Structure prediction request, 579 residues.
Amino acid sequence: MQDMLTLSGVSKSYGSLTVTDDLSFSLKQGEALGVIGPNGAGKSTMFNLIAGGVKADKGEIRYDGGDVTGLSAAKRCRMGIGRSYQIPHPFAGMTVFENLLVGGAFGDSVPEKESYDRCVEVLDKTGLLPKANNRAGSLSLLERKRLEMARALATNPKLLLLDEIAGGLTEQECHSLVATIKDIHASGVSIIWIEHIVHALLAVVERLIVINFGAKIADGDPHEVMNSPEIKQIYMGIEADA
Amino acid sequence: MSMSYTVQRSTKASRVAMTVGVLIVIGLALAPYWASRGDLRMMVEIFYYLALAQMWSLLAGYGGLVSVGQQAFVGLGGYMLFALAAFGGVNPILALVLAGVITALVAIPTAFVAFRLTGAYFAIGTWVIAEVFRLGFAQVSALGGGSGMSLPASIVRSIAESRSGREHLVYWIALAIALGSILMVFLLLRSRWGLAMTAIRDSETASESLGVETYVTKFLVYVAAAGMTGLVGALIFLQKLRISPDAAFSVQDWTALVIFIVVIGGIGSIEGPIIGVIVFFLLREIAADWGSWYLIVLGGIAVATMLFAPRGIWGLISDKWDINLFPVGRRLITEKD
Prediction:
């Protein structure tokens, strides 16, 4: 399979604080990759670098055969990189349906009316249909997280970046979230998923990387990575129980 | 997919509002036949403040562009009207429209400069740009330099023979511009661009990552608002028949009071500026002889509104009853089958 995304030697610093340190990895077309690491390890910054919200100081990001390092977030979204934010950024004054339409009409570059079908389908799939006409500002935190994923899906992504969307869910909800993400993956979308809820992550991903202090310290089969002594040491108390 | 759906744009409230709105507009259009000369004059003022408020709300409420320099475009529009009519021999009504177009064109390079700044720096930057415009026009001796000029009597007569004829015409133009500004914001918000602008209002970061070109969108909003503001500026000085740099580029008259109107009415909505302008003129009538206390009270009300009702009077109303008088939303009606 062809590489869909490649980061080579990507670095980002804020003053003397290095948040991404010479990071390199590739993602194959159709792959589902999990990302773990302690809080503040630079996982979300990595997403910002891939999606274009933050520009790399050094290194190159290639996506779909082209160099996207210098492209805007909006352009990358239209090229098929959809993302969710760890801290939800809902369009609070718009309805849930309208939130998705922004992604549909702009991220998917189709006339507004042509995005209706897709948005309704995504609302149904993510369980937000009953809330379609509610203001996004009135949603609970869990619903906001689901809205993050739904909006990203409305852009019709080829690569979906999910940033900690399973936290705080009940066992039942977590189960249905995993099923939804498996569905999305099965439809051909490549996925990178940052998650602390390791058992949910391991139910979906085929490969796992570990980030600490902005650098990649492990990359490989999820169960092997989780069982390596070094990772166990960093993750004292967090065991793979999947 | 086993689901049928429709997307509904208008609501019951919006249909009622539309009917009432049409009746009000008909009443207003007939005002020259029922209102006194003084009332007409004040209504012209209300109309141009309404249009300025709609434009500022569009800029700051949706584009996040808090400009303190809209007087640059009011003044430019006014001066363009005078220059075109007095020196270009252009019919004043046509000159009015051209003044709006020219102002929009001038706003393009202005935006390139102003958009290098963000937030508070943008606000100050726009004010500085307006001051540059004021000082620049004060240097043009053909336009009367610092003391300004009057519209030549022959041109004034070319608008309409009688004074009342001219006043009625100015009134109808003002009404048309006020309605035009509402229509412009309405159509923008109802379109695909409305989705983008509302999204930018709520979260610029998320808009970008959902494919919205925020820079381009804000740029277009800035230029469109400038064009309409220039048109309003031309109207203001067509009514006043006299222009000077200090009057044309007054930060208090054309920006500070407009911000007050938008803040108390409710920023980022069409309804807000309409309510704001009514409240402002009521206050002004009540407080007409309070001297400087009037401005102190105005400032106090604006501060209290920002602290306790950041989305203004309309924000309170729409939160409480969840209504929209202008059907810019999109409601999803589904039926599972």
Remarks:
- The CA atoms of residues 94 and 211 of chain A lie 36 Å apart.
- Chain A has a mean pLDDT of 90.
